[in-house]
Specification:
Layout: H1 36-41, E1 84-89, E2 92-97, H2 107-114, H3 117-141, H4 152-155, H5 167-170, H6 224-234, H7 238-254, H8 276-289, H9 300-311, H10 329-347, H11 350-366, H12 383-398, H13 405-418, E3 419-420, E4 425-427, E5 434-435, H14 436-448, H15 456-466, H16 477-490, H17 492-509, H18 528-544, H19 546-549, H20 553-556
Antiparallel strand pairs: 1-2, 3-4, 4-5
């Protein structure tokens, strides 16, 4: 409140005291003299001393003439004096009674009365504002829910998890992502470390100067510590990881009582033909790509049950016996071989070593004379099935298992026959036209089989892929899966261009609500009717795990 009131001048600090006596400047009121009779009867009392700002003479009435000699000067008897003070009001002094008679005024009250009116007004208004704010704020927050959907590109830099990280960890340039005890170079980044015969029975050997073995790091990015660093270094973020998590949760809900998975259901939009081996292997690859095993992870029970189901299907020759269409069987066999080699390479659990080696041995025997694989063992070849077997053999190398080199040489010979435009593009079979899908798969095979990063044929092929980024108007998850891996291995500007679209589009297409939240619909996909919802979901999860699922080849390959 202001100390002015609409321009009428300042308000008086206190209202005037009413009284029957008019006042003149410089005077104070006194009591009227008593009648003489009262005076004669009244005993003499000491003259009261009035309290005033300054001494003021008090006029005395003249005695009344009665023919009698005047007595002594009468002294007026007044009521008990009240201390007064003069408060100026304009040009007229005003009498104001003080506090209780004979008591010392309270300093706090005196200070309050002496405070300027604008200060009192300010304090009162501040108290009112605070009270109103305390009453209003809870009402504003009551029953309000705000939901905002944003994706990776809109969020910018993000933390990988809930723990705050230093800026250096978010801007990492990982050049040699070695484990702390790995100091020697490796001939192949896909090779497993050699096994050392170290006995712990002799305590004296515990301090021997044994050089640390060279470590094959291709699968080590899935470990918790490496995963965070690689996500930051290669463009993954909280959005991509959340999409992976939701996808794995959807897969966990689809696991059947026997521990396996199915391509046809119990979810909607299943495949037209079931293949329990393929469905289970693909689900396990999704979990393992995130670092989940039967020993560690939030989904270790699902992984354990999946492997209990899958291992029962393998016969002594390494083949997984199952009921499915004939043209699906070697696809599924290759997928199961990849998953088996990975779980052994990640855990070194001995119960997986022999089954994994048996599966690799079967892959060698099933290779056709042309150099690749197709629908039946040793009969015909196509780039599609061959690509899965290249990954199976490379997974065996990562796990430290035996892989025959002649098998790899024959694959190169087959790809030469499928190549176009100086081997920069590839066809499904020799003599057929090159396609985007087969080009991406063929280039990935060439990368694993030894082509150099600066090979002009490789760079031309990758540019062809980059000219056809992810577009859900023309959905082809199978092509995107292979293109994502090939571009990731190329790294640098090639990977940045592909990832800028991939990490945005794939999470956006994931279902966010309903019973199938976390999955990706197969409708509109070129191969959706053949693989169904589980197929498109698993391939989408693989793409979002690419930051750590396999380390980029050319970062660590010795040129």
């Amino acid at each position: 409140m202001s100390n002015t009131d609409s321009g009428r001048g300042p308000s008086p600090p206190f209202p005037p005291v009413p009284g029957p006596y008019p006042l003149r400047p410089g005077t104070v009121p006194v009591a009227a003299p008593l009648p003489l009779s009262a005076q004669a009867a009244s005993p003499a009392v000491p003259r009261p001393v009035p309290v005033a700002v300054r001494p003021v003479p008090v006029p005395v009435s003249q005695p009344v003439s009665s023919g009698v000699a005047p007595a002594a000067r009468p002294i007026p008897v007044a009521p008990r004096p009240v201390p007064v003070s003069v408060v100026p009001t304009g040009n007229v002094p005003v009498v104001k009674e003080d506090a209780d008679d004979g008591e010392t005024p309270d300093p706090t009250a005196r200070a309050a009365r002496a405070a300027p009116p604008w200060l009192v007004s300010l304090v009162v208004h501040m108290v009112l504002v605070i009270i109103l704010a305390l009453l209003t704020i809870p009402l504003l927050n009551k029953n309000q829910v705000e939901i905002t959907a944003q994706y990776a590109e809109e969020l910018g830099e993000q933390l990988i998890d809930d723990n705050l990280q230093s800026p250096e960890s978010l801007d990492m340039d990982v050049k040699i992502p070695e484990l702390s005890f790995d100091t020697l170079p490796t001939d192949s980044p896909l090779a497993a470390p050699p096994e050392l015969d170290i006995s712990l029975l002799d305590a004296n050997k515990a301090t021997d100067d044994i050089p640390a073995p060279s470590i094959g790091l291709a699968l080590s990015g899935r470990e918790a510590g490496s995963k965070k660093a690689l996500l930051a270094a290669y463009g993954g973020n909280a959005t991509t990881e959340e999409a992976v998590r939701r996808g794995l949760e959807w897969l966990a809900r689809q696991q059947m009582k026997d521990g396996g998975w199915s391509l046809t259901g119990p979810y909607p939009d299943g495949a037209s033909i079931d293949n329990r081996l393929s469905a289970t292997a693909m689900a396990l690859l999704a979990f393992q790509g995130n670092g989940q095993t039967h020993l560690v992870g939030d989904f270790k029970n699902e992984v354990k049950r999946g492997w209990d189901f899958l291992l029962k299907m393998q016969n002594p020759d390494g083949y997984f016996e199952h009921d499915s269409a004939a043209h699906h069987r070697l696809y599924a066999q290759a997928q199961a071989t990849i998953a088996l080699c990975e779980i052994y390479g990640m855990t070194k659990d001995e119960k997986f070593k022999r089954p994994a080696q048996l599966a690799l041995n079967f892959a060698h025997k099933a290779q056709s004379p042309e150099g690749g694989w197709r629908y039946e063992p040793q009969i015909d070849s196509d780039t599609s099935v061959t690509g899965w077997y290249v990954m199976a053999l490379q997974s065996g190398l990562m796990a430290g298992l035996e892989v025959q080199s002649p098998a790899l040489d024959k694959i190169n010979q087959f790809l030469d026959r499928c190549g176009h435009e100086n081997q920069s593009k590839y066809a499904y079979k020799p003599g057929m036209e090159a396609t985007l899908t087969m080009t991406a798969e063929g280039l990935l095979c060439r990368q694993y089989l030894g082509w150099k990063h600066e090979d002009e044929r490789m760079r031309q092929g990758i540019e062809f892929v980059l000219a056809n980024p992810i577009d859900y108007a023309d959905q082809n998850v199978y092509y995107w899966y292979y293109a994502t891996q090939a571009c990731h291995h190329m790294d640098g500007e090639h990977w940045n261009r592909w990832n800028a679209v991939m990490r945005q589009a794939i999470p956006e297409a994931q279902l966010k609500t309903g019973n199938d939240r976390g999955s990706w619909a197969p409708s509109g996909d070129r191969w959706g009717p053949h693989g169904g919802r589980l197929y498109t979901t698993c391939l989408s999860i693989y793409m979002l795990e690419v930051y750590y699922r396999h380390l980029p080849i050319y970062k660590w390959r010795l040129q």
